[in-house]
Structures are given as C-alpha cells and as structure tokens.
Amino acid sequence: MLEGFINVLKPPGPTSRGVVDRLRQILGVERAGHGGTLDPLASGVLPVAIGRSTRLLEYIQAERKSYRVEVIFGLKTTSHDLEGEVIECSPVERLEEEVLLRALSHFTGELEQVPPMFSALRHQGRRLYNLAREGKELPRQARKITIYDLRLVRIWPEGPYPRALLEIMCSKGTYVRTLCHDLGEFLGCGATSLFLLRTQAGPFKVETAWTLEEIARAVQEGCRDFLLPPEAGVQHLPAVVVKQEGVERFLNGHFLPAALCQELPAELPRGARVRLHQEEGKLLGIAIYSERMGEGLLKPEKVIFSSG
C-alpha cells in the first residue's frame, strides 16, 4: 500500500481536484488529497497525500505559502485574473517604481480581505464560483490574513498597461489574485493577476516538484523516487522519539509523560504540536505539549500509524 506525500508541480489549466484524480489513476490508489487549492489558471506546488497520510494534510494547509505573481495594472476582471470577464480598462501612462513600492508597504502585516465571488467557498451548499457564473453577487465577510513578505521583483512601468512581478509570503486563506485587485484599487487604476506560481507550501518547494508526466514515467519504470515518507508533510513540527514502553500508551489515546520519551526539544512551549516517532523512526502521529505539576505531557491529537 502506498503511503506518503508527493510534491506535484501543477500546470495551468486543470483544477487541483483534477490533478489529484489524474494522480490516483497513475498510481492506482483510491485515497489521495491535496494540501491547499490552486486556481485553475495557477501553477506550482501542490502537495498531495496518499493513503493514511491524507490525515496530515491539515498541518500543511495551516503553514505559510509563497508565490510569484505577475500583475497588470489598468485592467479589472470579474475573477481578479484572466479567467473572468474584463469589466473595466483604465490605461495608465506610466507606473513609477517608487509609487508602487509605497503602495506595497500598505499590504504587509495582518489585513482583512474579502474573498472573491470566483472562489470555492460555499453559500447554502453551492460554490460561489458557480453563483458568480450565473451573474450573482453575494455579500462576503472579510477574513483576517497575514502578508509576511511582499517584494517587487521587476517592473515594466510603461503604459498603457504596466506590469510588475511580485513575490509574496502569506498565511493560509490568502487569495493572491484578490490582493492584486486590492492593490489596483489602492492605486486607483485597477489591477488583475496575469500569472500565478506557488513556489512553496509548507515544507514543499517548487525546485523539487514533479510534473504528472514525470511521475507517470517513473511509475512505468518501476521507480518511486517521487514518493516522500509521511513525515515529509510535517517535518516543520519538532520531532519527539517515543520509548518502546510508551508506544502502545500513545496509540491507545493516553497522555504520554515526558519520561516515556527521549529528550524533548528545548524550550518547547505549551500548546506546541510535535510529531512522534518510534525509536526505529516510524511516524506514529501528532501530539500537543502540555505540563502538569511541572512535568511535561504529550496529549495525542492524531494517531496516524500503528506500531506494526
């Protein structure tokens, strides 16, 4: 049985679900899921979990993500990218780099962002993008996001539609194309996303991603170099090795005293998540660190694999 993660390089065009379905066909597996949706026109890192590793996807989805996006100014669309209809053209004679840099400084830190109508969010059981295609516009509640880093890589300042290449590191739930739209609104000329590449999602980076074609060819050749172990999806969490006498206790859902573990990471804060391994290295699951009467305790949050 296949278990683990695959760092897939999603191409522009198919949906994230479509990429996972194609991967299921290539591998001949039933259970697979992805760690964070990419829009159809977007490309880049799409972490895919196979088998029981799908239970670890939530820990990837909660991690920071990085993107490169090309923005065109003076153009608005219904979807905030080129998938939607153009609703406004406002030619710009020239966009000065200093003006753009000042604007970017207003879009870092904790922000509130209104999700676009063209999104997979649901209203009364229906996806918003389906309602948007019917011409409907519904009120959406703003959500808090965090932009950790926003940099200008390159600018093409000449009009009538200047362009810029940006690098973004952001929190879960950020719509980068909407960030482009909001940037255009701030500048008073409108903007939309031309091209979006996700360069990192949690521990997975674009430099080591595999295309579907490369994975299919590897399978035909009997190679599984593309398949990463289950812990690859949670390697950002501190590792704790459980002594043999504590393994069954954890698997049965009981608190694990620190004495039943090898040395805990230094200065582990209360509430921190850790990944638990057997002494042989096998991943057992995820636990939350707490303390009782001065003693460290690990509370099982998710048991993934048995000791067998």
UniProtKB/TrEMBL annotation:
Catalytic residues as annotated in Swiss-Prot or TrEMBL: 39 (nucleophile)
Molecular functions per Gene Ontology: RNA binding; tRNA pseudouridine(55) synthase activity
EC primary class: isomerase
Keywords of this entry: Isomerase, tRNA processing
Domain tRNA pseudouridylate synthase B C-terminal: 177-234
Catalysed transformations (reactions): uridine(55) in tRNA = pseudouridine(55) in tRNA
CDD domains listed in its UniProt record: PseudoU_synth_EcTruB
Claim: Mitochondrion is one of the keywords in the record: no
Pfam families: TruB_C_2, TruB_N
UniProt cross-references to NCBIfam families, sorted A to Z: TruB
Family: Belongs to the pseudouridine synthase TruB family. Type 1 subfamily.
Protein name: tRNA pseudouridine synthase B
Organism: Thermanaeromonas toyohensis ToBE
